[in-house]
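Please, structure for the following, as tokens.
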Amino acid sequence: MRLLRQINRARGIARVGTGAIARPVEQSPTAVSFATLLAWWSLRSRSYGPFLRVPSCPLWLKNFAGCPILARILRKGGIPRTSIAALALLLALTSACRLDMHVQPRQNPLSYSDFYADHRSARPLVEGTVARGQLHEDTYFYTGKIGDNPGNVMPFAVTKEVLERGQERYNIYCAPCHARVGDGNGFVPSRGFARKPPSFHIVRLQKAPLGYFFDVMSNGFGIMPDYASQIPTQDRWDIVAYIRALQLSQNATMADVPPDQKVPSEPPTFREPGSGATPPILAPKQESEMNKEGQK
């Protein structure tokens, strides 16, 4: 549709729009000047003919650089050839650099290499190098041994928190085979596993030093794999303390019981037995008696 630009100089009203609808522009010096400029540009383009008009701006250049740049370049005689050559060289160099950054000369892990005499790309650690956090100065804490023999002392004080942590880790990693009471009748042997683990309550393991249990957990024994990668060093010692507590609990005598405690203790009475999702609730009488005994 032919663009219609009308200027009414007598009334001072500028109308800009299409052939069907023309919308008035506010009567201000700026609006009239802008309408006059549009009319002058239309007359200038028609008077020069199709071959002498000011060249239009391509869409790709309008998005990239804008029309004023094209107009200045054309007025000065076109795009210089040196600029085209420099632009092409710049694109070639940047594309080559990008390719080199994506495909770098490197060696795949454990691949063959002609650079070293042994033809191995993976190099051994420098002798005497110790990684950060792996300087095991306390030999007994990390091995459980004094010289070549397992020790029978804990490397730190045993507290209630240590036993609770050891019980938690034991129930996760040890109870599936050794059972929660340490008798070796865990879930795995009860389902047909050929080699049943020994009970912690036999005489041999009751007399075993503490470092022996730590060494077995760290390095494995028989068909039992090591748990050094799954259980940190501190947690392994916590489990050792809990195993000793299990042994004492399952083989205690009357001499080990405090005078004010009944043996065997009375079974608890529950108000609600509970389910797998909710814990049982003690009966009010039983709960009050247990609170009194706890206060004593």
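The first strand starts at residue 4 and ends at 8. Residues 55-99 form one domain.
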